Request: fold
Amino acid sequence: MILERLNQNNVEEYIAYLREAMKEEPDKMTAETVDEQGIKNRISDPFFAGTTSVLAKEDGKVVGRIEYHFYGCMQDGYRMAYVDWVYVLKAYRHRGIARMLFAEFEKDCLQNDIDQYYLIRAANEEANRFYGNFERAELDDAPVLRKYLKV
Reply:
């Protein structure tokens, strides 16, 4: 298993992974289609420069990824990370790939002196079992406000 960051050189493999993920579990995706050109544009867009995607590859094929970004609170200097997305293709689950992705992410967090990270997690049995094994972590049912600025 190879872990590498999403970039111009592996974007086609990433897009192929997204297509497969959408095919096998469309109800778990946050988009309805793969915006191939949009993804290619975002890789070089300065707005997305702070977003990191780590890809898990096996035999040249992307089989999983974790996407995250860092941010901080000006008032108290607390340094945080938010995991935007983590997903492993069904055929590759239960092989430690998600754990490897989180380990790589946590290594990056430690290198950047991050105090805490969080994510909005799935609440199904499989996800609860996975996240329930994290050390020094809490599974909350926190209220979330979402306000859409564009229709």
User: Anything to note?
Assistant: The beta strands are 2-5, 51-58, 61-72, 79-88, 116-118. The helical segments are 11-24, 36-43, 97-111, 125-132. The longest helix spans residues 97-111.
